[in-house]
Amino acid sequence: MNVLVQYHNRCQLCRTPLRVVATQRAVLRPLYAAGADDMLEVYPTVADALRRPHVL
Fold first, then answer.
1. Which of 1, 16, 18, 53 has the highest local Cβ count within 10 Å?
2. How do residues 2-53 score in pLDDT, each as one tens digit?
3. What is the residue extent of each domain of the chain?
4. H helices then E strands: how many in the chain?
């Protein structure tokens, strides 16, 4: 989790979005429990993540 937050911060500095693709509860549950889903963009598929426009 800490690594994701660190990379999120780095990506913001570079004005590049960090998109997380995950569908398994074992991955999603800790993200939601920690509130990281408010900070990170979480998508169910790579196609969904790539379809989103690059807006920072």
1. 18
2. 899 899 999 999 998 899 999 999 999 999 999 988 889 999 999 999 997 7
3. 2-51
4. 3, 2
